[in-house]
Design a protein that fits this description.
Length: 151
């Protein structure tokens, strides 16, 4: 790939998969996209076979390319992968950083429901959460406090 930047608002802007090799797919506010992920999205026609290792990258790029139907299609698989006490904090930070608003409520709900297990499994990730995104950490703490104060 050469250094040419391709700015686009929808996957239909690029007509052939061969074009991928000529462009570095990049949003002004985001990192370069993996050409394999980009090609998969360009070929999307209602069915999308995404390897588990590329779920995050595919969902992130689909959101950047304004493909909400793809995001909704991938959301359940990503939530299954994300929703473990050992991984939920990193997925929360990732989704928050990339403004993946459709994922955040489910990720937050899992975190809140399993916060004790999260703290036991990966206490250092709680430190990372408060350091990297204090507003999100505060929101989660306020929600926990409200839930604990209810009868």
């Amino acid at each position: 790939m050469d250094g040419t930047s391709l700015e686009m608002s929808h996957a239909g802007c690029v007509r052939s998969l061969g074009t991928i090799n000529k462009y570095k797919t990049q949003n002004l506010n985001g990192p370069a996209a993996d050409p394999n992920v980009f090609g998969r999205l360009l070929a999307y026609s209602g069915v999308l076979d995404v390897p588990a290792t590329q779920l995050k990258a595919t969902l992130e790029l689909a959101a950047r390319l304004l493909m909400p139907e793809v995001c909704e299609l991938l959301k359940p698989r990503l939530l299954v992968a994300a929703c473990t006490p050992a991984t939920i904090t990193s997925y929360l930070l990732w989704a928050e950083q990339r403004n993946l608003t459709a994922l955040l409520p489910a990720l937050k709900a899992f975190f809140l429901e399993h916060c004790k297990a999260v703290a036991e499994a990966v206490p250092e990730q709680l430190d990372e959460l408060t350091a990297r995104h204090p507003a999100l950490a505060a929101e989660l703490l306020r929600t926990l406090a409200r839930a604990k104060s209810r009868p």
